[in-house]
Amino acid sequence: MLSDKTLLTQVLVNKAVHPLPGDWGQKAPNDEAWFSKDSPVQPSSIDLHVGYIYVPGTKGPCRMGGERNGHTSYELSPGHSVIVSTFERVTLSGQFGGLVFPPSRLSSKGILVANIGHIDPGHSGPLRFTIINMGARPVSFVREKDAVGTLMLFELDSESSRPLSTRFAGTGEKTRDEPNAEEIDALALYFAGIEERVREVALRQANRRVRNIAGGAFIVSLFVSVLLGYVGLMLTTGSSLAQKQFYLEEKLFDLSKENISLVNRLEQANRDIEDVRAKLNQNFSEIRGRADGRDRKLEADDLTEETSMPVTRTEN
User: Fold this and answer.
1) How wide is the angle at C-alpha 220 spanned by C-alphas 217 and 222, nearest 5°?
2) Are 174 and 167 in contact (CB under 8 A)?
3) CB burial of residue 271 (10 Å; 0-12, 13-18, 19+)
4) How many other CB atoms sit within 10 Å of the CB of residue 128?
5) Biased composition, Polar residues: where in the chain (predicted)?
6) Which residues of 79-97 are buried (b: 16+ CB within 10 A; e: fewer)?
7) Cα separation of 9 and 85, whole Å?
8) Radius of gyration (Cα) for the chain, nearest Å?
9) What does residue 292 show for φ and ψ, rounded to 5 degrees?
10) Alpha carbon distance 189, 52 (integer Å)
11) How much is the pTM?
12) In whole angstroms, what is the distance from residue 52 CA to residue 261 CA?
């Protein structure tokens, strides 16, 4: 693995990483700024920065975020994913390879950088990463400003017999600096369709509550079990449990609020049913009382009529 001094030579002399952000490309090799905390060249790595940002589902090459027209700044919402190319081009000879890691500053924000890994000798061009916001808040990315990867270079024990660049020679295949529409749309805007899945689960459970209002307690328990099962599934898949948990906790909180609202509606409906039942009982009692009163009056009238009739005697 190369140290900062050797990395600096690779950057400034061999243009292994070029161009550099800001005015770093104009600084002299002996400038002490190269060894400061803000330097893109760190003790054993080089920071790679955001270049262009491509958003899945963007239709047409002329629209921002689509093919050949990437964003230079973008706010990534929770659960959303994008493709990011690096501002720097990485050009390696047959003697050097590279490893790329996500910066810890991104992980602390709940950002997951996918398809990050090694770089073969002979590579030439920007790198591309899939970035997913697994956190609870939107995160902004700006071209040339925000670091998206940390590159480490290492020297092979001998030069590669056939570097990557020569392996494509004569095949008719070309490596592209930027993704095409097919590659962009192969990625879902929402990671693993999570937003649609959460919305679908919530809507399905809400519909069940409406249809089965009398069995509210059972529906609530079913909703919770389904939700917990979904959370368990998400937490056991993917490469970063903590990052997924950040996002799912917020979704769980939102769904819990909706659950409370639905339970309150259920309780109100039950109270309304009890009020209707009480009014029906009261009306029934009143109707029965009036019917009993009429029956007693009819009996009294009959008795009065019988007592008022004259008695006819028959003489022998």
Assistant:
1) 110
2) no
3) exposed
4) 19
5) 306-316
6) bbbbbbbbbbbbbbbbebb
7) 24
8) 38
9) -60, -40
10) 16
11) 0.61
12) 42
d(CA 23, CA 25): 5
CB contact at 8 A, 57 and 64: no
DSSP state letters, 245-256: HHHHHHHHHHHH
Would you call 54 helix, strand, or coil by DSSP? strand
Give the angle 75-236-147 at the CA atoms, nearest 5°: 30
Q: What is the mean pLDDT of each run of 10 residues along the chain (316 residues)?
A: 93 94 93 94 96 88 83 94 95 95 91 89 93 93 96 94 81 70 78 55 59 57 57 50 60 70 78 81 74 70 62 50
> Which residue in the block uniquely carries the two structure tokens 């959460």?
198
Neighbours of 293 (CB within 10 A): 10
Which stretches within 139-180 are classed as H helix? 164-167
